[in-house]
Amino acid sequence: MKDILNVATIISATVVCIKLLIWGIFSMKTALLVMIGVVVFVAIGNPFAKLALSLIAVYLLLMSQAGFSMEAFSAALTPIIALLVMLVGLYIILRGLFR
């Protein structure tokens, strides 16, 4: 199961990098360095590194959708935080039910 999560982390980071590359926000070199960095952090296996990668991916996604405007980013951040809190709560509930 842990390997599946590691692969999912790599895939999600790669998709974000490719999306930013297509939009012209990342250069090919930057996208390559970010993807290699993701693989290194996932290979290290530190859960805090994976959390940091997830937060960076959410940040890049929100900034790209907000057109790199801090006002639009702040407006988009509130519903995303609410969604993440709800999903974590649902995870805790379901984990408790199926133990």
What can you tell me about this protein's structure?
The chain has one domain. The protein is flat, with a radius of gyration of 15 Å. The longest helix is centred in the C-terminal third of the chain and has 28 residues, at 70-97. It is built from four helices and no strands. The two termini are 16 Å apart. The protein has 99 residues and is mainly α.
Structural key phrases:
single chain; 99 residues; mainly alpha; flat
Structure summary:
With 99 residues, the chain is mainly alpha-helical. It contains 4 helices and no strands.
Radius of gyration: 15 Å
Any low-confidence stretches, pLDDT <50, length ≥5? none
How many strands, what sense, and barrel or not for the largest sheet? none
Percentage of residues in helical conformation: over 70%
Please, what is the average pLDDT?
Answer: 85
The count of DSSP E runs of length 2 or more, i.e. the number of strands, is 0
The total count of helices amounts to 4
Question: Which overall shape is indicated by the principal axes computed on the Cα atoms?
Answer: flat
Calculate the terminal CA-CA distance, rounded to whole Å: 16 Å
Would you list the SSEs in sequence order as H and E?
A: HHHH
Structural domain tally: 1
Q: What structural category arises from helix and sheet content?
A: mainly alpha
Taken as a percent bin, the fraction of beta residues is under 5%
